[in-house]
């Protein structure tokens, strides 16, 4: 049995120790925010933070994660309040959203060690593939997140998670069909 800490909680995986951590997180821990992209580490969609470092979870085994501190997108911040999450929304740097968790994790790890990154720092530290091509907005968002983390600026753009049940149940007026 492999023991590690995931999002601040002790976790034990009773699975083959050679299982990629990506699959353990998604299937055994039900933390599906970490995405399976290519399975060979090229796309970076599965990026998580392990002991403060952005790593591709498809390339690290459960055994290699033994005793380590792992943070997934679900554990980045309660209520989606991390500066990276807020800045990605504020800068409209999210399109389809598939690559977003991996980008957010790589950016959070970068800002933890360099709160004022240059565009070239960002390009080097966040090599994630985005098929929607939002790269210029990503750079702006990550730089903005750095300013928020340094308390130079604030963002009030990120909505609270979830939908208010009253809003979800609200009736939508029917279109006038001339009846």
UniProtKB/TrEMBL annotation:
Q: What is the organism field in this record?
A: Tsuneonella aeria
The answer, when asked if Metal-binding is one of the entry's keywords, is: yes
Extract the ranges annotated as region (Disordered).
159-179
| UniProt domain 2Fe-2S ferredoxin-type: residue ranges | 1-76
Gene3D superfamilies attached to this UniProt entry: 3.10.20.30, [2Fe-2S]-binding domain
Q: Does the keyword Protease apply?
A: no
Q: Where is the sequence biased in composition, kind Low complexity? A: 159-171
**InterPro entries hit by this protein:** 2Fe-2S-bd, 2Fe-2S-bd_dom_sf, 2Fe-2S_ferredoxin-like_sf, 2Fe-2S_ferredoxin-type, Beta-grasp_dom_sf, Diverse_Oxidoreductases
Q: At the top level of its lineage, which domain of life is listed?
A: Bacteria
Which UniProt keywords are listed?
2Fe-2S, Iron, Iron-sulfur, Metal-binding
Q: Note one Pfam family from the annotation.
A: Fer2
Q: Quick one: signal sequence residues?
A: none
GO MF annotations, alphabetized: 2 iron, 2 sulfur cluster binding; metal ion binding; oxidoreductase activity
Could you tell me which CDD domains the record lists for this protein? fer2
Q: What protein is this chain from? A: 2Fe-2S iron-sulfur cluster binding domain-containing protein
């Amino acid at each position: 049995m492999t023991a590690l800490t995931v999002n601040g909680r002790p976790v034990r995986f009773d699975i083959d120790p050679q299982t990629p951590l990506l699959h353990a997180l998604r299937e055994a821990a039900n933390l599906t925010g970490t995405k399976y992209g290519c399975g060979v580490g090229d796309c970076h969609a599965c990026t998580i933070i392990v002991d403060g470092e952005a790593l591709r979870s498809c390339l690290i085994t459960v055994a290699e994660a033994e005793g380590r501190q792992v943070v997934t997108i679900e554990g980045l911040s309660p209520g989606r309040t991390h500066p990276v999450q807020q800045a990605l929304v504020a800068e409209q740097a999210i399109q389809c959203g598939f690559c977003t968790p991996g980008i957010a994790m790589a950016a959070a790890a970068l800002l933890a060690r360099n709160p004022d990154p240059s565009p070239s720092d960002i390009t080097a530290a966040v090599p994630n593939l985005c098929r929607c091509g939002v790269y210029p907005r990503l750079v702006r968002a990550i730089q903005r997140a750095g300013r928020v983390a340094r308390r130079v600026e604030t963002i009030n753009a990120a909505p609270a998670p979830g939908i208010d049940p009253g809003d979800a149940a609200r009736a939508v007026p029917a279109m006038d069909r001339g009846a």
